[in-house]
Every structure is written in structure tokens, then in C-alpha cells.
Amino acid sequence: MAYWLMKTEPDLFSIQDLLSQKVSPWDGVRNYQARNFMNDMALGDRVFIYHSSCKDVGIAGIGEVVKTAYPDHSQFDPQSPYFDPKASPDKPRWTRVDLGFVEAWPAVLSLARLKADPALAEMALVQKGSRLSVMPVSSGQWQHILGLKP
DNA sequence: GCCAACGTTGGC
DNA sequence: GCCAACGTTGGC
Fold it and tell me: Does A150 reside within a domain?
């Protein structure tokens, strides 16, 4: 089983929303590298849910892949902010996955804490200027993160 | 709200 | 294929 990390703005969708809704709408990803990682996800893979652009930035809990990559419908919808005129149903460009809820942590594992940890230095998350919103987490890294869980 | 850093676009 | 300009991300 692989581990991943996905960013979300909690004002739009948080770990608490995942808890109450049970399944997430993970659409609107418009970055090729992030998309390719989503395409690599397998059923049951675990996903660290990271809260970005908010007061308490960091890992807030865990989800799991309950539906693997399929076309993100918003790319075909002219009304959607995620509309992509270069995409069509027979040639979809963007994908999404569905996540289920696994656990919400009692506190966020802060970005400052993650940055301070030499064991996690290789993660794109802690690298200066990185904006990647979906990334793999190696087994050494995820075991280490679970050890830091608040 | 600021702004550094990034990925994408499009003219040439 | 280069690269300047642009819009966006995301920490602070």
C-alpha cells in the first residue's frame, strides 16, 4: 500500500468535511505532475490530507483512495471555473480520484515541524517554492510522519 | 495583504 | 525552441 499527500484549502474542503461527507470531491487539479500522480494511485492507498492557505498549515489527517482516477467532469463544463476548452469527453485531459475518510488528527502536524525534520527533507512539500499539490510519500517518510502524529 | 516562486502560454 | 509576460500558489 502506497502513501500520498494531497493539499486542500480547508475553507473549501477540510478533513472535517471528509469526515462528515465520507467521500471527497477531488476535482479541479490542473497540474500535469499532480495529475500523473493521481493516475498512479491504487484502491486503498492512504493519503495524508494537508491543509494549505489557512491559519494552521500542516497535515490534518488521513484519507484513502476509494475510487481510482477517472475523468474530472468539470473540465467539460463551460460554467465551471475548471473548464478546459482543450479537453473533450473522448479526449479527457484531467482526472480526479475519490477519497474516503480514515482519521482526523486531534491537532495539525504543522508545516514548521515537518520542515524542521531532516528525515522529511526530500519531500516536495518542504522544499522552497514547491507548489505541487499531490505527491508521493516514501515508506521511510510515511512511517516517520506517523511517528510524529499529534 | 504581500510577494517570491512557480507553471503555462504565446509571440517570435 | 526560447523566453517574457502572465496568472496562480501558498507561506508568512
Answer: no
Q: Which domain holds residue A69?
A: 3-145
**Residue–nucleotide distance: A91 CA to C12 C1' (Å):** 40
Element (H, E) at A144: helix A139-148
Which nucleotide's C1' sits nearest to the alpha carbon of A127? Answer: B5
pTM of the model: 0.92
Q: What is the pLDDT of residue A22?
A: 66
Which secondary structure element, helix H or strand E, spans residue A16, and what is its range? Answer: helix A15-21
Residue A24 grid coordinates: 471527497
What is the number of domains present in chain A? 1
Residue A68 falls inside a structural domain? yes
Tell me which nucleotides of strand C come within 7 A of a protein CB.
8-12
| Greater model confidence, A37 or A24 | A37
Q: Would the Cβ of A31 be found within 7 angstroms of any atom in strand B?
A: yes
